[in-house]
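User: Structure please.
Assistant: Input sequence and predicted structure:
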Amino acid sequence: MLQKIEKEKENVPNCNVLKMEIHDGKMRVMDAADTEQPFRLIQSIPSPKAEPFKLWLAQVASERLDEMQDPELSVYKGLQQNLNVGYSENWINQRLKSIEILKELTNDWKKRGLKKGIQPEMACFSLLAN
C-alpha cells in the first residue's frame, strides 16, 4: 500500500518538499500538498477501506454542485451549522443583518469610486471629499 502511495505521489502535481518544525522543535524536510492533492490521492487508492471516504467525497461534491445551482441552500446549511454549534437564532439573525449591512456599505463605496486596498480611515476621508 505504501509503495502505491509513493508511486501516486510521484505522479501528483503540486506536491512539494518543505522544511517544517516537528514536535521536538527540529526542522525536517517533509512532503507538503495543497488541499486538493490528498483528496486526489485518496481517490486513487483501490482499497475497500477507502470507499467510505470516497463516498463522502462524492456526497460533498454533489452537495456543493447543488449549492452552486441554488445558493440559498448554502445559507440554510450555514444556518443549521450555526444552530448545531450552539448559536442562538437571535445571534444568527443579527449576524445575517450585519453581513447585509456590510454588503450595502461596500456596494456604496464601489459606486462612489473607492478603490480596493485603501485603509478604512482614509476611505472615510475619500468618501467625504466626494
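Residues 83 and 89 are 7 Å apart (CA to CA).
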